TrEMBL record, chain A:
It comes from the Bacteria. The lineage of its organism: Bacteria, Bacillati, Actinomycetota, Actinomycetes, Kitasatosporales. The chain crosses the membrane at residues 6-25, 37-55, 67-97. Pfam families: AzlD (PF05437). This is Branched-chain amino acid transporter AzlD. It comes from Streptomyces cirratus. Keywords: Membrane, Transmembrane, Transmembrane helix. InterPro entries: Brnchd-chn_aa_trnsp_AzlD. The keyword Transmembrane helix applies.
TrEMBL record, chain B:
This is Branched-chain amino acid ABC transporter permease. The chain crosses the membrane at residues 25-58, 64-86, 134-158, 164-182, 194-227. It is a multi-pass membrane protein. Belongs to the AzlC family. It is found in: Cell membrane. Keywords: Cell membrane, Membrane, Transmembrane, Transmembrane helix, Transport. It comes from Streptomyces cirratus. Signal peptide: none annotated. It holds the Pfam family AzlC. The keyword Repeat does not apply.
Length: 102, 232
């Protein structure tokens, strides 16, 4: 049930912000401070999410095979690999390291 | 490249080139719905719930964030809040698109569902209104169909293979976030925001309820802007 509540809230919230952008009069959200903040919010959220989902399990900070996978993904990004390759490399390296170390 | 003049004097690109752009982006990113389906199933949500998210939310980062937060044991409200804040950037895409595409009022509620990173990028890369509308539509349609199809396949596949961590699939979510983040980190301000958010996200994780540290990490954005404003 909790999952459906979360899904319902996300569906409504995410659709509302998409629609708001198309409907509000031009200029309402055009203030420089608002624009800058909206560009930086995803940077903050994505950085925190990347770190958490790489270095934690539940409430504990851990260093495991995922860190190697993410390092490989970062390298693929530096080499300008396509999106799917970046994700694929992270998965392969993580699985490979787990297979080797047991 | 062949270019044509439209009556308004805007140089439009040929339809085939615009369609190629849209299909290229739509197929590449659409296929990554597979990663979402697998991650969602690995987070313990059902195939139906994974498909509902892809059909009705249809903005990748928010979807990954939501299932990640639920998997970590976050309550539905903090989990949805994180997903919502990630989705707010779409409002600003909508602003730019509404001027560019000049859609009729009746079409806007439908078009809104497709206002995401990829459709905006393709539409903004076009030189005129006609090609922008075509690019938006082709990208949106391709991505929507493939993203939903691959979500279903990924979720079913993950159920079939059992423990997704053995296959390293728990690394797919963070890798997606990193791939989305990389092109956004363009200068010192972005780097400072990312670094502060990372420290807050990890530092508060052991001591606060699940889902809350991410929301506090989001404050890195206004905090860095405020510090920058004071210094200049």
């Amino acid at each position: 049930m909790n999952v459906w509540i979360a899904i319902g809230l996300t569906v409504v919230g995410c659709y509302a912000v998409k629609l708001a952008g198309l409907l509000v009069p031009v200029g309402a959200l055009e203030r420089p401070a608002v624009r800058k903040l909206s560009a930086l919010l995803p940077v903050a959220l994505l950085a925190a999410l990347t770190a958490q989902q790489t270095f934690s399990t539940g409430h504990e900070l851990v260093l495991d095979a995922r860190a190697a996978g993410l390092a490989a993904a970062a390298l693929a990004l530096l080499l300008r690999a396509p999106f799917l390759v970046v994700v694929g490399v992270a998965v392969l390296v993580t699985a490979g390291l787990r297979a080797v170390t047991g | 490249m062949v270019i044509r003049e439209t009556p308004q004097g805007v140089i439009e690109r040929p339809r085939s080139a615009v369609i190629r752009d849209g299909l290229g982006v739509g197929v590449a990113v659409g296929l990554s719905g597979f990663a979402f389906g697998v991650t969602a199933a690995g987070s313990g949500i059902s195939v139906l719930q994974a498909c509902a998210l892809s059909l009705l939310v249809f903005t990748g980062a928010s979807q990954f964030a939501l299932v990640g937060a639920l998997a970590a044991g976050g309550n539905p409200f903090t989990a949805a809040a994180g997903a919502f804040f990630l989705g707010t950037r779409n409002a600003f895409y909508g602003l730019r698109l509404s001027q560019l595409l000049a859609l009729p009022k009746a079409v806007r509620p439908l078009a809104a569902h497709w206002v995401i990173d990829e459709t905006t990028a393709v539409a903004l890369a076009q030189p005129g209104r006609k090609s922008a509308r075509l690019g938006f539509t082709v990208t949106g349609l391709t991505l929507y169909v493939l993203w939903n199809l691959t979500t279903l396949l990924g979720a079913l596949g993950a159920e079939a293979i059992g423990d997704t961590t053995v296959w390293g699939l728990d690394a797919a979510g963070p890798a997606v976030f990193l791939a989305l983040l990389a092109p956004m980190v363009k200068g010192p301000t972005e780097r400072a925001v990312a670094a502060l958010a990372l420290v807050l996200g990890l530092g508060l994780l052991p001591v606060l309820p699940s889902g809350v540290p991410v929301l506090i990490a989001a404050l890195a954005a206004p905090a860095v802007l405020w510090m920058k404003g004071r210094r200049s």
